[in-house]
Amino acid sequence: xxxxxxxxxxxxxxxxxxxxxxxxxxxxxxxxxxxxxxxxxxxxxxxxxxxxxxxxxxxxxxxxxxxxxxxxxxxxxxxxxxxxxxxxxxxxxxxxxxxxxxxxxxxxxxxxxxxxxxxxxxxxxxxxxxxxxxxxxxxxxxxxxxxxxxxxxxxxxxxxxxxxxxxxxxxxxxxxxxxxxxxxxxxxxxxxxxxxxxxxxxxxxxxxxxxxxxxxxxxxxxxxxxxxxxxxxxxxxxxxxxxxxxxxxxxxxxxxxxxxxxxxxxxxxxxxxxxxxxxxxxxxxxxxxxxxxxxxxxxxxxxxxxxxxxxxxxxxxxxxxx
Length: 322
Description:
The protein is α/β, with parallel strands linked by helices. 46% of the residues lie in helices and 10% in strands. The strands form three sheets. It has a seven-stranded mixed beta sheet, with helices on both faces. It has a two-stranded antiparallel sheet with strand order 3-4. Strand 8, helix 4 and strand 9 form a beta-alpha-beta unit.
C-alpha cells in the first residue's frame, strides 16, 4: 500500500490511512499489510500544526504498489509537484487502483485522471472542484464513488468509510469490521449515503431516537420478512412519514438500509460458516437464494458462491482483489 506524500497533505488523512493499513492486527485475523510512505525523496514532508511525515520510499516504488492512497489537502488549489502528478498517471496506466480522500480529488484532477470521470469531494468543495476542473463530473452528494479504478471520497469521516470499503472489497466484511472495531468507528456506511444529515428541530432528534430503536429491532430480526410498513408501525408513524424521517436521519432510504444490512449479514455468514447458500439467504432475510444472488450481483458485482470462495480462503490475496 502506498501513501503518497507531498507538502500540503492533511495530517488527519495521513493518520486514517496509517490506522487502517499501517497497524499490525494479524493476531486478530487481519492480513499483514505493508504501508509505504512514498514521496519525491526522503526529505520530511511538512504538514499543518508543525507535523512532518518521513517518507521511506521514492516515487519509483509506486510500480510495486497494489493500491495508491492520496491524502486530502490543506490548500486545495495549490499545485502538486509535477513529478507526483506524472507518477500518478503512470500508476493508473499500469492499472493500479488509486484512492483519494476528501480534497485529494484535486490532486487527481490536476493529474488529469478525473477528466471525463465521476468524482466526489467534501460537500463544501464541490463548486470549487467544478469551477477549476470543468472536465470532471462532480457527483453532488455521496460518501465515496469509483470510476475506472479511481476512488474518491467526501470529507473527513468519509475517508474512513472509503478505506474500510477498500479493505472490505479485498478481504471481506469480517476483516473490515475487525479494523473498524479497533478504530471504534462504524464498520459500514453505504457509499451512496448522504454526506451530512441535519436535525433542525428537537422533534427531529426525538424521531432519530425512535428510529434508532426500530433499526436495532430490524437488526435482531433480519431473518424475518420485514416490510417498511412493519417498521413504520413500530415507530408509530405512517409508512410515508417513516420513510421521510428515516432518510433525514440516516441519509438513505429504509429499503436501501435494510438491503445493506442483509448483505452485510450474508457476507459474514459466508465468511464464518459452512451453511449452505439457501440457509445463508434465509438467515440474512433474503427469502431465497435467487433474491440474494441478485443483490450480490447488483451491489457487490459477484455471486454468493464466488464471494465465499474468495473470502473463506487464507489471507494473501492482492489488497484490491475482487
